[in-house]
Amino acid sequence: MLSAKNLHERRAKRTRYNIAKNAHGRLRLSVHRSERNISVQIIDDKEGKTLVAASTLEEALRKKLKTGADKTAAKTIGQLIAERAIKLGIKEVVFDRGGYIYHGRVKELAEAAREAGLAF
Predict the structure, then answer these.
(1) Is the sign of the CA dihedral 15, 17, 18, 20 positive or negative?
(2) For position 62, what pLDDT does the model report?
(3) What is the chain's percent helix, strand, coil content, to nearest 5?
(4) DSSP 120
(5) Contacts (Cβ under 8 Å, ≥6 apart) of 8
(6) CA dist., res. 84 & res. 26, Å (int)
(7) What is the pLDDT of residue 119?
(8) Which domains are delineated in the chain?
(9) Fewer Cβ close by (within 10 Å): the C or N end of the chain?
(10) What digits encode the pLDDT tens for the residues 28-58?
């Protein structure tokens, strides 16, 4: 029987495979969620480089947020990544939920990024 970690890795690989197939050259907005924090980055898979990143571990956000593990933090990170991306001229991305269910913090982050001007 597979462990929870192996099952998560399988879901993440399956998601990334489908994203690569349908991305059509767009950048990837990748989400990582842990029990205490949430982080997101925009990745150019052709060059293998991270262009923009945001996390609840950043000093300015740690002081501002009560915890990095709630919907408020996810919404803040979603808005922040969208602002940083638009500043660099990135407007369209593909959303990579990374094996997580599109629910709760992941959903809140995605909706906040969309509201702030990122298209996916």
Answers:
(1) positive
(2) 92
(3) 45, 20, 35
(4) -
(5) 99
(6) 17
(7) 96
(8) 4-115 (3.30.420.100)
(9) N
(10) 999 999 999 999 999 999 999 999 999 999 9
